[in-house]
Amino acid sequence: MLVLGICGLFGTEDDEFLPGVKRSFHHDAAACLLEDDRVVLAVEEERLNRVKHTNLFPARAVRACLDARGATLGDLDAIAYFWDENHLDVELDLHYLRHPSLAATRSRDLIANRLELALGQSCQHNVIEFHRHHDSHAASVFHDSGFDEALVLVMDGNGEDKSCSVYAADAQGLNLLRTTPAVQSLGHYYTGATQLIGYGSFDEYKMMGLAPYGDPGQFAKTLDELLELRENGEFSLDAHRLQEHLLLAGYQPRKAGEPFEDIHMNLSAAVQDQLERAVFHMLQYWASQGFANLCLAGGVAHNSTLNGKILQSGLFRHVFVHPASHDSGAAVGAALLSTTNSAKHGRRSLRGADRIRSVFWGPEIEVQDEAEAILHRWNDLVTWERCSDSATVAATMIADGSVIAWATGASEFGPRALGHRSILADPRPASNKDRVNSLIKMREGYRPFAPAVLAERVHEYFDLPATDTTYDFMGFVATVRESSRAALGAVTHVDGTARLQTVDKAVNPRFWKLIHEFAQITGVPVVLNTSLNNNAEPIVQSLEDCLATLLTTGLDALVLDGHIVRRRRVEAESILTNQVMLPPLVQLTSTVTTGTGGPASTTTIGFRDWPSSRVPITSAVSDLLTGAADAVQFNGSERHQVAQDLWDLWQRRLIRVRPYGPQSGMA
């Protein structure tokens, strides 16, 4: 049985469709293709269109999935969507009321239309199936857990009109036990606090990283007024009143870019504490009902601090957190529901054969001749050499102090870099945390990094509870043994913990070999592992994405399967000898204002659906990007300034740079 799973909304790169819809609505668009219950390919749209957390219809991801199987829309037994049809149509009607010029098209018709536009093929409406959002999350995590039976807890901002759903799951399927309404959302509560400390949508993990620096006591009493713990694991949370409640209590919001003070850290700590209180209140009740296995999914399940405390608590013998707990994972869950509930092929068990150990489900990076053809084209900006043992060379470079990009094989599905699209560094010097944060990730210095450790040696460095839980996916924060904290200075957080990834030789052999070789040199079987991207872009997918990150950050080298790539010493003006273009969804906007000096025009550049990304540009840069001017027209100081401006825009991923043609490029 061949099933396509989809999450995302209905805008496209050419058609905004619903003006003003926030990126956080149906965010993290993705597509997956299942054959029976096996993943053929799964990829998030952001990896392909290069727009973080995009909610556009996943046209590129759908094409990649079908191409991987050589399939067409006509080959599909079902097309599964991650949201309830009636609820979605009501949401659409509300938008149509606000925008009466739009044709009131139903969601089923929109899905078929977007697929037909993306693929140039006809789509049968009757193969499209809709599944409730939390059901989709629950199906994905239970299937991939390998458990025979489990308690499944889904927590997010909201799925339709619910924010928490509790299920009893077994081979027969999902039995919904309890729900919490959206107005009591733990996810929206956490997001509201994230905004109060100066961050935006999708930055909740930053507040989680800040929380250990604070004291929750300052805000405990104030927040207690919003949370009521009730009998039988139920709770009441006035999530939507959080911001007003804190403002009335005298809290002054931090603005983006302002320094962090104790009050911001204390609020972060208090909100994290309240989240943990509510979740533990639920789980303590359900554990008392005899459940031994726990599955967690939904956006809140990416709170690895919470997950680590659940594991340490001993409430459950085994805990599994889905590596794609956010909305992208619901595309897989929706496809699984269509697979297991097929009228045509017969009902199948929702239980997977085994717990998944890897999510290298995305497209492969270019290798060998294809990679060399790309590297030839980039010869003006990079040098490269062939390498027969990339893992050993990479380990030596890291031990010698280099910070490298490491890209190999199929990309990871989900928000974590797990050793196929990673930035790697020596975990020992504490200074490496500051170096990677400032020169490469271009982010706040307090933010922690994950240690990737050989699975067979994890207990030497980390204090783990006595369960058979696996740590393949950075889903849990664990305690670093006190005796090891000095040796792991770059990956040990201020509270003595780390977001752990274990690397098994049988699961991820190339990454395992790299860490093993690093241990042979240094005696430490751990490397610092973070995602291969800068702060303005999603995790890289292709070799050209890797090269852009290498050239616009402080990385020392890019290591591929068979090649080592380094930056040339180039001036910013070299950008003017390459193609400079606007990426998908980036727009120029001109505004004319009238003042005492007469009319004045200002041009800005930014992503179409991301207002905070917009920055002003000069008329010279605008003319170059619109084709009104050519780079050869600029000379002297103007040429230098245009080049510097373009390089800054490239770092922000507001322009795309590509070489004009093939050249010879081996070092």
Outline the fold blueprint.
Blueprint: E1 2-7, E2 30-35, E3 38-44, H1 45-49, H2 59-69, E4 78-81, H3 85-98, H4 107-119, E5 128-130, H5 133-145, E6 149-159, E7 162-170, E8 173-181, H6 186-196, H7 204-210, H8 217-224, E9 227-229, E10 235-237, H9 242-248, H10 262-288, E11 293-297, H11 304-313, E12 318-321, H12 327-340, H13 368-377, E13 382-386, H14 390-399, E14 404-407, E15 421-425, H15 431-440, E16 450-454, H16 458-461, E17 462-463, E18 477-480, E19 497-499, E20 501-503, H17 509-522, E21 526-531, H18 543-551, E22 557-560, E23 563-567, E24 579-581, E25 586-595, E26 598-607, E27 615-617, H19 619-626, H20 636-651, E28 656-658
In a nutshell, what does this entry contain?
Helix content is about 35%, strand content about 20%. The chain has about 675 residues and is α+β, with helices and mostly antiparallel strands.
Question: How would a textbook summarize the main sheet?
Answer: 8 strands, mixed
Q: Please identify the structural class as seen in this structure.
A: alpha+beta
Shape verdict: globular
What is the averaged pLDDT score? 94
* Strand coverage percent: 15-25%
Q: How helix-rich are the residues, as a percent range? A: 25-40%
Total E-strand runs: 28
Structure characterization notes:
The longest helix is centred in the middle third of the chain and has 27 residues, at 262-288. Helix 2 crosses helix 4 (107-119) and helix 6 runs antiparallel to helix 10 (262-288). This protein has 667 residues and is an alpha+beta fold. The radius of gyration is 25 Å and the shape is globular. It has 20 helices and 28 strands.
